[in-house]
Write a structure and sequence with these properties.
The complex is a heterodimer of chains A (about 550) and B (about 170). Helix content of chain A is about 35%, strand content about 15%. In chain A, strands 3-2-4-5-7-6 form a six-stranded parallel β-sheet, with helices on both faces. The N and C termini of chain A lie far apart (about 70 Å). Chain B has helices at about 5-10, 25-35, 65-75, 110-115, 140-150, and strands at about 10-20, 40-45, 55-60, 80-85, 90-100, 120-125, 130-135, 155-160, 160-165. Classes of the chains: A alpha/beta (about 550), B alpha+beta (about 170). The complex binds thiamine diphosphate and magnesium ion.
């Protein structure tokens, strides 16, 4: 029997196990929307396509499965680009379906035509223009496979209107054959052995883990390996949750706003074990002075990440989980003796660093400190919540003061740093886990970038919580202006702002406000007890800064501490 | 050639890239170079005997680390099937040039002599000019161009490089 492109589309989504898509209709995808009603799939109607792609991304990060979004041609497609780039930088598996003008009009500057393939080529893992309905099923299959295998990433599929409406024989291709794509999962045993010997004999080892540990579901193995080798662990922003924060071996996050002890430990280590991380400039600072005394082991599934920024002594291409399992196996077979005593001086030194400059603030009686809000949110939600963030100070305070213990409980735009990401991502996570507590820790600036999606939370009874750390500034930019531009606060003041409580109410959500420190706890309690979307407006100290802070391009030991 | 050019020469490398013969693939390859600030010095593309596969020969430059990154990034492209690093193998390479040169009664003989020495061919003739085809490595083409210069070069069109590994001799 012959099926239309639209029918094939939904058959393929079913075969891929897709239960939810986030989308917004338009002329070029009207046939798909017409067909949708005949299938069981859930469609979440967003209010801006940027919302759709961030929701699909949040869904993917929270579940580990592929997130899916569907938008129309032209402006619908271009509206997703920020979100596609966001997913690409953080290696998130999403498949984006965009409508396209009919094939015979492509290249004609037709109404709502845009070369979305050309536009997204540099910010997708791969993309496809489907020119013939006969290729549709194969391409969708490949798209899901590419998005979720190897180093994950976004894959965009452009669907001309006539392809969707024409018919062909449907056969779901079981096997994917891609001649030029064969990710390496298996870590090379010889390299693993070399790495193990180094780790066993190192005096001052540090594990530096990144988002790869989350993507490969290797948190358990990382935890075990850290403990077995008595190796202190730091992670990047993307790796938070990959190692339980309240742990004697936990160093906190490293990098520009990392903890004193994490940056000092890396700077003094004799062996740095990078696992699923990519030596980003926010982590290394001045590259020539990054971990100057250390040999470097680097495990990554993407060979291009290895020796890109920092020359590596022992490269290991492969899946983090596979590599950690093999290392654990070696540790079992050839246990290292006297590790406890061997590591003691190093761990003692780290403890000294911890005591010298712990993360700290003082909550007085009058003005709310944003760090206090994050700590209180942690206190009332720990181990059960999924946290998303926006970008800026709110994101860094969350990274510092929310002590993530489980993978996939922090969803944040790390690589691209996309303001507006956190709230739609929270909706995506809530769509996947209706019973979990999902909280977007937001800034007053960022939240306004995708606030229109609030109606989506209300409409779908997604009880997402938004906690605005309202400093009435584009705080992180203001902080740079304070330190490096003589306090010239050019265009960073947001004192003209909506009343967020009334805004919540206008959307049919709940709005709560805390002006004083004593109001913080009651507001959080009430919000968490309310089974509806809630905006919490925490009016915080306007000129609070995130510390420690390493100026861009400086060595990581040159931290500003207050 | 200046010494700094000479240095660049040292860092110049030839890569063979087998790709799926599909629209957009060349722009993925080119985009990879432009997007990451790598340089393409020359580029040749054509179908192979398998019509589903095209072969790109490209010349690029960079130090060891940059070359490693370029090769890895190329391999990462889904449509790239194979990258041949000609730094690792003995290879033969050729370029072709079409050179339109002034050929008046007094200079025709000399033009032909030069063509002969370089085993070129005259592929088009007019009362005042010759168009010469010459094939060889980059140095040979530069050499003939230099010799023809004083006759008056009207136009010159050069291809990129095509490269192939040498067969094992033993
Ligand atoms: C889309 C986008 N535009 C601009 C920026 C640059 N930027 C980084 S942080 C920041 C300030 C964010 O302000 P707010 O959301 O209030 O967070 P705060 O730093 O005050 O916590 C800006 C403008 C960005 N990251 N993303
Ligand atoms: Mg702010």
């Amino acid at each position: 029997m012959k099926l239309s492109g639209a029918q094939i589309f939904f058959e393929c989504l079913k075969a891929e196990g897709v239960d939810t898509i986030f989308g917004f209709p338009g002329g070029a995808v009207i046939d798909l929307y017409d067909e949708m009603g005949k299938h069981e799939i859930r469609h979440i109607l967003v209010r801006h396509e940027q919302g759709a792609i961030h929701m699909a991304d949040g869904y993917a990060r929270a579940t580990g499965r592929v997130g899916v979004c569907l938008v129309t041609s032209g402006p619908g497609a271009t509206n997703t680009v920020t979100g596609v780039a966001t997913a690409c930088m953080d290696s998130i598996p999403v498949v984006i379906f965009t409508g396209q003008v009919p094939t015979h009009l492509i290249g004609n500057d037709a109404f709502q035509e845009v070369d979305i393939i050309g536009i997204t080529r540099p910010c997708t893992k791969h993309n496809y223009l489907v020119k013939d309905v006969a290729d549709l099923a194969r391409i969708i299959r490949e798209a899901f496979y590419l998005a979720s295998s190897g180093r994950p990433g976004p894959v965009l599929v452009d669907l001309p209107k006539d392809v969707v409406s024409s018919k062909t024989e449907f056969k779901y291709p079981r096997k994917v054959v891609l001649r030029g794509y064969k990710p390496t999962y298996e870590a090379h045993m010889g390299q693993i052995k070399r790495a193990y010997d180094e780790i066993a004999s190192a005096k001052r080892p540090v594990i530096y883990a990144g988002g790869g540990v989350i993507h490969s579901n290797a948190a358990k193995e990382l935890h075990q390996f850290g403990e077995t080798m008595r190796c202190p662990v730091t992670t990047t922003l993307m790796g938070l949750g990959g190692f339980p924060a309240p742990h004697e071996l936990w160093l906190g996050m490293l990098g520009m706003h990392g903890t004193f002890r994490a940056n000092m430990a890396v700077a003094h280590s004799d062996l740095l074990i990078a696992i699923g991380a990519r030596f980003d400039d926010r982590v290394t600072g001045k590259i020539a002075e990054f971990a100057p005394e250390a040999k470097i082991i680097h495990v990554d599934i993407d060979p291009t990440s290895i020796s890109k920024n920092v020359l590596v002594d022992i490269p290991i291409v492969g899946d983090c989980k596979d590599a950690l399992k093999k290392l654990l196996h070696l540790a079992e077979e050839h246990p290292t003796k006297n590790l406890e005593t061997a590591r003691k001086p190093w761990l003692d030194q780290i403890e000294k660093w911890r005591q010298t400059y712990p993360l700290a603030y003082e909550q007085g009686p009058d003005v709310i400190r944003p760090q206090f809000v994050v700590e209180k949110i942690y206190e009332f939600s720990k181990s059960k919540a999924i946290i998303t963030t926006e970008v800026g100070q709110n994101q860094m305070w969350t990274a510092q003061y929310y002590h993530f213990a489980e993978p996939r409980t922090l969803l944040t735009s790390g690589g691209l740093g996309t303001m507006g990401y956190g709230f739609p991502a929270a909706i995506g996570a809530q769509a996947a886990f209706p019973d979990r507590l999902v909280i977007d820790i937001a800034g007053d600036g960022s939240i306004q970038m995708c606030i229109q999606e609030l109606i989506v939370a209300v409409e779908n009874n997604f009880p997402v919580k938004i906690a605005i750390l309202n400093n009435q500034y584009l705080g992180m930019v203001r902080q740079w202006q304070q330190h490096f531009y003589d306090r010239r606060y050019s265009q960073t003041c947001l004192s003209a702002a909506p009343d967020f409580v009334k805004l919540a109410e206008a959307y049919g959500a709940v709005g709560l406000r805390a002006m004083k420190p004593s109001e913080v706890e009651p507001v959080i309690r009430e919000a968490f007890a309310t089974p509806r979307p809630v905006i919490m407006d925490f009016v915080v100290n306007p000129e609070e800064c995130v510390y420690p802070m390493v100026p861009a391009g400086a060595p990581m030991t040159e931290m500003l501490l207050v | 050639m200046s010494t700094s050019n000479q240095k660049n020469e040292d860092l110049r490398h030839t890569l063979g890239v087998l790709v799926e013969n599909q629209p957009g693939v060349l722009s993925r390859v080119a985009g990879l170079f432009s997007g990451r600030g790598f340089n393409i010095e020359s580029l040749t593309v054509a179908e192979t005997i398998d019509p589903e596969i095209s072969r790109i020969t490209l010349v690029t430059s960079g130090n060891e680390q940059i070359m490693e990154q370029i090769i890895k990034q190329l391999r990462k492209l889904v449509n790239v099937i194979k990258v041949i690093d000609f730094r690792e193998v003995e290879f033969v390479d050729r370029e072709m040039a079409l050179i339109k040169v002034k050929a008046e009664a007094t200079t025709r003989a000399e033009a032909l002599r030069i063509v002969d020495i370089f085993r070129g061919k005259v592929v088009d003739v007019s009362p005042t000019s010759y168009t010469i085809e010459v094939t060889g490595d980059g140095k040979k083409i530069e050499a003939i161009t230099e010799l023809l210069q004083h006759l008056g070069i009207i136009e010159i069109v050069r291809t990129g490089k095509a490269a192939i590994a040498r067969s094992k001799k033993t």
